[in-house]
Specification:
Layout (H helix, E strand, L loop, with lengths): L1 H20 L4 H5 L13 H22 L7 H6 L35 H24 L25 H9 L12 H30 L4 E3 L6 E2 H4 L5 E2 L9 H6 L5 E9 L5 E9 L5 E8 L7 E5 L2 E5 L12 E10 L3 E9 L14 E5 L2 E5 L11 E5 L2 E5 L4 E5 L5 E5 L7 E3 L1 E8 L24 E3 L7 E4 L3 E7 L5 E8 L5 E7 L10 E8 L7 E5 L5 E5 L19 E3 L2 E5 L3 E7 L3 E4 L5 E9 L39 E11 L3 H13 L3 E8 L10 E3 L9 E9 L5 E9 L13 E4 L7 E9 L7 H7 L12 H4 L7 E4 L4 E10 L9
Helix pairs in contact: 5-6, 5-7, 6-7
Length: 827
Amino acid sequence: AHTNYENLDLLLDSIENFRDSGAINMTSIFGPRFDDIDIFYSTPEKYTKYKHHEFLQMSADATMSGMNGITSFDDASTAESPLSSSPWSTKTDDFFPYSDNAHSFWTGYFTSRSSLKRLERVGSSFLHAARQIEAFLSREGGGGDILSKYKGHNGQQHTSPLRLLDEGVAIAQHHDGVSGTSKQHVAYDYAKRIHAGMNDAETYVTTLLKNVFISSRSIYGGGDKSVFESEVVLENLSYCQLLNETICHVSQDASKDDENDIFVVVYNSLALNRREVVAIPVSRDAEYNVDVLVTATEESEALDWKPVSSVLIPTTNYADIASAAEYALYFNASVLPPVGAAVFRIKIVKTEQKRSTLETSATRKDYYGINYLKVSPRPVTAVNNIEEYDEGTFIVSNGVLEIFFDKSTGVARQLSNPQVGGQRLPILQEWGYYKSYDKAGEQKSGAYIFRPKESNEEPTMISPMSGKSVVFHSDLVTEVHTVYEEHWIKQITRVKSGEPYIEVEYTVGPVPIADGIGKEVITRFHTEIKNNGLFYTDSNGRDFMQRKRSYRPSWNLEEFEFVAGNYYPVNAAIYIEDEKSSLCILVDRSQGGSSIKDGTVELMVQRRTLFDDWRGVGEAMNETVDGITSYDPSEDEPARRLGQGVIITGIHRISVGSGRDGASKARAQMDKVFFPPHIFVASSKSEIFIPFRAPSYSAVKKALPDNIQLITFTKLPSEKYETYLIRLGHQYGYGEDQYLSAPVKVDMNNLLLGFDVVSVVEKTLSGNQDWEKWQEQRLRWENDHTEITSEWTTSLTSGNSVILNPLEIRTFEVQAILIEDDVTASS
């Protein structure tokens, strides 16, 4: 790039010198129409303005050519112009999948560096929650100005302690960052920056949460030397970053001792009331009682603890993580307020204190080749039955879905949703891999390029082992574990009480390469859905794009790579549907996906290739646990990989519905997958009184409608009023849901609990200018030349309410006055 710009600068200077010296004879070179020349760097803004000018000129020329018989301006203004629309075509599809030659489809990077893709999403989700917590809780009060305790590395105070995380997540958006197409040591740097930012933000956010939940009374001291209760209790409150590895050091350490209580703050960043089943890693098999903090009565402000359902399930640690917990304690977090948090307590029940009404025994027996473990939660709130269906199948029901499992392998065979007529959808999940193309001198599969050995290759499928599956069953959570013939693929199918989906948690790796063949690992779901080559993938979580196998809407396709040329990016969800049924799969990170055969959905979850694909990375997509040796890219000697291949763990969330219901099923779960509950854990000795002052809190007066997203909620600097940037989005597209696709009216006064809204000003999407001012300046491509109507200039309806149309995003700057000096909590 440096050389290119040096040459361009030289070209610009030379032409300007020739022009100024008269060495360029404009008329002789360009004709009599031109008498001057200018050369400069263009930008998208300049280019668009020049194209708009060109459009207006063509429109004016067309109007003049149609003026015959028109004698006045009034006649001309009402005449039909020969140029009634843009002369350029409008593209409504996208460019995926693209290739730069017949066998080079850039569809591999949709999955490359799966772990980094997941970390980027975790960091983004935590940043979203941290901005909300900062916006609502960082104002002065209850222990002093928290911001004053956080300084930058040079001793200067940061605008926000979230700055490092902001920067880490932002730089990972680089086109060689989250795409997975950087060199290995650069990928490590992206991960290091996100992790460092999360650590920095964790300290700040946990301080804010303690400040809202724990009494702010001064214990001793005065003035600047005061010590507050919120600073000396639950000092080890921490954010559990490694729950995907079943690691939370605070809960694991505390659960080793009967004398400890564990406190869990569960934060919900969605603007909806929420129910979730939460898992906390613990160290030993014991009896745990889980309670939620509530107000004792409606008339009293006194606080009390109310029991919730919980169950202890042993972990399998398929990824062989040294510090992973041996058990996971699941409990029902059914009281999560919108943009807020609730507090739970875990007590370890001593033997002499066990309640006689509790079922504490666990039995284990052979059940048609499946080890069957039943654990009874406390208290029982739902019935999650396992019943025999026929000789080869058993059914798990969670009150919403019925899942039919193969008794021998533990693989799901059929899904049924009794709430939508009880129609049963046969389903078969498989695992397999495509062999990477590696012929010398030809295009190979690598970080960017996905190219199987054969253009229409059938993947090598891996069968589940018979008689090796295990079922852990309870009224709250049921797990069905499946082991495959290749030891590097393992799976847990998880069914949670009352949820309209099942989770498939997979562990893949190390992908073997001893045979000298790279592998692109997929999971494929077979159904009887007649989708006729059509499937749908999201466009960055917004529009669902219709995809048609072996077809491009903008040109006639000559197909060279059947498999790779039909892969598309899946950032949130992929679904297929027909008139009877729909199948939707949601992902926890960006992956490549397709419907290679009718009735199927497949997703690529991991890649390990052995050659570079000549697109600039200079390395094979071969990630190893101990990294890569240092090397000089300008030298011939390549880097060496250290250690075995990486192991990844991920989750697919699977929903089924009735006919033409795929988009609705996906929309209902997308935000819940992208923004999971955030878990903060602390511990204390049981005899220590914890001075909680609120059972829960919410930043909003009222939950938003089910089809409205709170995309951004962050605080802006302001001298007079509390000022917030709030971005709202309609989650559903036209026709995706019978009810939720309708326009929605949102009262902005409900978005700030404890505040009176002073003003609401709509901004452009990026928030950098007023929407009304932009409307006056925006380029208009229609040939009407009319004045801007009130429809364009009026962005708010009466009473600070706004209307959002399907898939519309709107941004607002809201100024408000604080009603109370303290945080208003909700019970």
